[in-house]
Write a structure and sequence with these properties.
The complex is a heterodimer.
Chain A (H helix, E strand, L loop, with lengths): L14 H5 L4 H26 L13 H8 L8 E3 L5 H6 L4 H9 L32 H16 L5 E6 L6 H12 L4 E7 L2 E2 L2 E2 L20 E5 L3 H16 L5 E6 L18 H7 L4 H11 L5 H24 L36
Parallel strand pairs in A: 1-2, 2-3, 3-7, 6-7
Antiparallel strand pairs in A: 4-5
Helix pairs in contact in A: 2-3, 2-5, 2-10, 2-11, 3-8, 5-11, 6-7
Chain B lengths: L2 E3 H15 L3 E5 L15 H9 E3 L4 H13 L3 E5 L10 H8 L2 H4 L9 E6 L14 H5 L5 E3 L4 H13 L4 E6 L2 H4 L1 E3 L13 E4 L4 E5 L2 H14 L5 E5 L2 E3 L3 H11 L2 E8 L4 H12 L9 E5 L9 H7 L3 H12 L2
Parallel strand pairs in B: 2-3, 2-4, 4-5, 5-7, 6-7, 10-11, 10-13, 13-14
Antiparallel strand pairs in B: 1-8, 6-12, 9-11
Helix pairs in contact in B: 1-7, 3-4, 9-13, 10-11
Classes of the chains: A alpha/beta, B alpha/beta.
Chain lengths: 361, 327
Amino acid sequence: MAATTRSDTRPATSDLAASVGLVDADLVEMYRYVALARALDERMWILNRAGRIPFVISGQGHEGAQVGIAWPFQRGHDWIAPFYRSIATCLTFGMSPRDILTAQYATATDPSSGGRQMPGHYGSRQHNLVSVSSPVATQLLHAVGIALAAKIRRTGQVAMTSMGEGSSNQGDVHEGLNFAAIHKLPFVFVVENNGYAISVPAARQVSVPNVADRASGYGIPGIVVDGVDVLACYVAARDAVARARAGQGPTLIEAKVTRLTGHSSDDQQTKYRSAEELEAELKRDALPAFRAQLIEAEILTEAIEASIAAKIAADVEDATDYAESQPDPDPATALHHVYAGDAGDGPDVAPDADSATETSD
Amino acid sequence: MPTRTFIDAIRETLATEMRRDESIIVLGEDVGKKGGVFLATDGLWAEFGDERVIDTPLSESMIVGASIGAAVNGLRPVAEIQFADFIFPAFNQIVSEAARIRYRSNDGYGVPMTIRAPYGGGVHGALYHSQSVEAFFTHVPGLKVVVPSTPYDARGLLRSSIRDEDPVLFFEHKKMYRSVRGDVPDTDYVVPLGKAAITHPGSQVTVIAYGLMAHYALEAADRVGEDGISVEVVDLRTLRPLDTETVLESVRKTGKCLIVYEDNKFGGYGAEVAAIVAEEAFDYLDGPVTRIAGPEVPGVPYNHALEEWFMVSPEKIADGIRALAAY
């Protein structure tokens, strides 16, 4: 997805972009995705507090790592099995703001599930994004199986999954990493460590300093990366994708991120996190950090930033209006798609043609 | 027509299906060089190689979870769980994932995957090599559950299962692997999922069974036939979806219904059949819907005398038929 493929003349390449093998336009686009994900996420909370949507599960604090890590994966070719904080991952991999907000409203046209799943349970057949399940870590095995099929079918695809440090303790993670490592599958395991599994801190979840330390038990690289540093996340993922595509097997990437919100709209994190801690965490937000980095490198000019902000504002308004206007699923369709062909193929109400593609670009 | 054992029918069907469709892979514990602990996959590794016949680590959740992913990305996995008793580490993957992915993605994704597992007692397998686990899975919409009783059905139903677009659990009674033989044509026939078979027509009592119990029901029908009791045996073959029509037609004809299953009685699969018969055929019943099933212990005990006490037998079924016929 590098912008070099989209540019018609020699693209501008600052030292910063060149240091990671990208061009300035890539960095601007990455920033746009980080900011777009945040803006959509903030809109979700407003809609929740306004009584428009009953539940929010948030990705705030994870966006920089998600965009950086998703960037080197090839859209429409590689595979991602996301989890419920993966808003920025799903946007980067091709889902649109409308796709994200129809999932919050659980409309008939929600491409993730047609209103069957809770908000945040994204998925898209069109974009090779596997349907999210609430019991996180189950999807690691699906990504491993996708990678197995990619290897057997020689498709050249790489499969990635992401989850928090809490769910990384599930047995499925061990079973899947072991198998993926034995067969050197084209697989990347991403842990977005935000320090909390709902209310329980990482020190009570993981017996070693880093989840990535466990990689050595499988004989695979375990990389710890600062989730505030979008480009460091990109480089870690780029290298992992290259290893996977070269047949050298899986990589575990642990991005240290922060969770700027409660676990969900039903959680009050001030009950178990101090005001000082929460204040300090604000400094670990990749959005302002990445913005400052791009301004410093003179990549993000005032004009570009204004243009991005306008575009994001328009996208969020459009997605909100669209989602508000969409019908609820008809209970007469609730028995459909328990089995193949029990109600024809595909969703009962297809999304509008223009919502299936990204509104930007 | 060639005669085959139950397990030969299964093994040859796996081989012919793999020759027909190169997207089929087989994975499980010891399924490769060894050919499976019962030899159900014997010869597949030699013919199809490491990539399509995969010896997995002892990780049942992975066997099923990776099969789900492989199915999502264009393969048609046939997973073997070495004994049905060992399926529980994969329960979450089967029930929360495989069964729900089509529904929760609004038909975005499906999981064309078959899980084969030997089940059942009477082979000195004790608590962890004898269980009947079907009731845990027949409860779940999104799954299909198949229990063949003859080599002919094993071949035809396994073909249907592998070619199906949804997850199928295919339970094989291990006592039947080498003790049951039957005619199996070499043609590419299928037995459709969801169709029961009347294996012994009769007029006075309907006996509904599946797997090994379908054989014992036939033996029992012969025994009570000597006493002048005419029994109709329905072999369900597929437990989900259930062929309700064939069951109800038979009960409406006979007015008496006995359901036989090897699992312990309480909450077992036969309870659902009994409920459907009571709901749908009440006006035709000339006696209580009854069940012959295993006792309420949490597993099949090992010692021969204890195992015999546990197992449903043709004699126990015949006694049940006589009691119901006399009602």
